[in-house]
Amino acid sequence: MTKLSVNVNKVATLRNTRLSGIPSVLKAAKICLDAGAHGITVHPRPDERHIRPADVHQLAELLKGYPKAEYNIEGNPFEGRYMDLVRAVRPTQCTLVPDDPDAFTSNQGWNLAKYADRLALVVASLRELGCRVSLFLDADPDQVAHAARVGAHRIELYTEPYAHAYDSGTAESGVHPFVDTAARAHELGLGVNAGHDLSRDNLPLFLGSVPGVLEVSIGHALISDALEMGYESAVRGYLAAIGF
Fold first, then answer.
1. d(Cα 78, Cα 145) in Å, to the nearest integer?
2. Is the dihedral of CA 70, 74, 79, 81 positive or negative?
3. Residue 122 is part of which domain span?
């Protein structure tokens, strides 16, 4: 069954427009976990535009009270303080993303033919810390073999192209590259996660088409829904879309 990890970056984005500390990232995460979310995701960027180092540590403490929940920290291991934060809190999973420091949002997967050697050293270090390692990849079966060679446990499919296809009415053809990439990952013994622009609307078709997705990490759409529905109802809506 696919697990839901709630990305709370957008809660921090709103909080950072004031000095009052509201809305609280910690409170949002707790409500989501109490509503049934299986984990929390953050993506601390070097410019601290949303998640800050203090959030990373506070969420790590919160999650100690939820022993079955997972902590997923996304980021570029070659930029900013990502590796320092990971060493300090030792999350369940590290999702390595090739974001430039000034990237508006995650917009591509790794070119593993280019970065495999550098990533292999990082992956080995993270594995020594006891972290599961996932590499953010485009829907490209040719990249998957590189992910296996560098020692990753999983890949995370970058799903924005699928979301665009869904919105334009071409979802069934748009999902095919993801099906093929996931199948290749399974052949090589890699787990498959997915994330970016997944929503309550497009999740059922995606998960019904792509085999064996272990986790979806969802932030923007879920937090947007929560503005209207509340965190608890939004999480339950996404769990229902997943099939829980």
1. 22
2. negative
3. 3-230
- Which entry of 74, 146, 153, 156 is annotated as an active-site residue? 74
- Structural domain count, the chain: 1
Q: Which residue has the tokens 């013994």?
A: 189
| Active-site position among 38, 43, 146, 153 | 43
HSE-CB for 110 with a 13 A CA cutoff: 30
Does residue 156 fall inside a structural domain? yes
Q: Do the domain assignments include residue 238?
A: no
Residue 48 is among the residues annotated as catalytic for this protein: no
> How confident is the model at residue 99, as a pLDDT?
79
Within a domain: 171:
yes
Q: What pTM did the predictor assign?
A: 0.96
196 is catalytic: yes
Do 75 and 101 form a contact (C-beta atoms < 8 A)? no
- Collapsing DSSP to helix, strand or coil, 236 comes out as helix
Residues 70, 156, 196, 215: which is the catalytic one? 196
CATH of residue 78: 3.20.20.70
So what's the pLDDT on residue 80?
85
Residue 43: active-site member: yes
Q: Exposed e or buried b for every residue in 144-167, given b needs 16+ CB within 10 A?
A: bebbbebbbbbbbbbbbbbbebbe
* 150-197 per-position pLDDT tens digit: 999 999 999 999 999 999 999 999 999 999 999 999 999 999 999 999
The residues near 214 (Cβ < 8 Å, ≥ 6 apart) are 2, 3, 154, 191, 192, 193
Q: Is residue 235 part of a domain?
A: no
> Considering Cα of 71, then 74, then 80, then 83, what sign does the dihedral take?
positive
CB 29 within 8 A of CB 232: no
